Amino acid sequence: QALGLQRRAAEAVLAVCASHGLLTFTNGRYALTAVAEDYLLPTSPTYFGSQFDWNLAHSEIITLDRIQRAVLTDQPQAFPDGKPIFSSLEEEVASAKQFTHAMHSASMGPATAWPEKITLSDHRVLLDVGGGSGAHAIGALWQWPHLHGIIFDRLPVCEVAQEYATKYGLTNRLGTHAADMWNDPYPEADLHFYGMIFHDWPAEQCRFLTGKSFE
Questions:
Q1: Strands 125-129 and 191-194
Q2: Amino acid 169: pLDDT
Q3: Contacts with 152 (C-beta within 8 Å, 6 or more apart), sequence order
Q4: How many whole angstroms separate alpha carbon 46 and alpha carbon 136?
Q5: Per-residue DSSP letters for 17-49?
Q6: pTM (predicted TM-score)
Q7: Under DSSP, is residue 85 helix (H, G, I), strand (E, B) or coil?
Q8: Cα dist. 177→93, 130, 131, 210 in Å?
Q9: What are 43's strand-pairing partners?
Q10: What is the DSSP letter of 58?
Q11: Which of 37, 63, 201, 210 fits as disulfide partner to 205, beta carbons 3.0 to 4.6 Å?
Q12: Element (DSSP H or E) covering residue 210
């Protein structure tokens, strides 16, 4: 009633959401499930909305045709016809920041889970290579209070990471290092983390990065 929705249309959408586990239906009333509260409320640390915003803004990339082409060609499909999608540096910077927010939405769920599965008590500094918003470093620092983190990424991305470090009260333990992972040396750290990196590059380039970490 508050939104002015027609009952029939609203019930159709609610039924679909309930079938996907986003809503419960009890005593004639719909309510959010725990999953929906985790991922669909902006107040949640694992809010997925920025990822949805990115998908909607780049619908030409998220298509069945591009999935098919990726499988058949074994090539990334982020850029239409292999051409850059940015017409200016300002546009590229703005898009990089938007993409970083989207990746933060996609990463915070797993970032709160994996640090519980391994022991990091013997490590002191985590280097998050191509770390984006720093979501995974944030998750690790939450779980292991003695740990410090460094986000290694391009300058516009590091600016977003600094925003999240401030948001989560981690500025004294989480810093940034603006550089190019292909051409610049890694800062000192005793633990290297790669999240959503290797699937973007051919095997030989992935071996190059792991070689840098090994050295």
A1: parallel
A2: 95
A3: 127, 128, 129, 130, 131, 176, 177, 179, 181, 186, 187
A4: 12
A5: HHHTTSEEEETTEEEE-HHHHHHH-TTSTT--H
A6: 0.73
A7: coil
A8: 17, 10, 10, 18
A9: none
A10: T
A11: 201
A12: helix 203-214
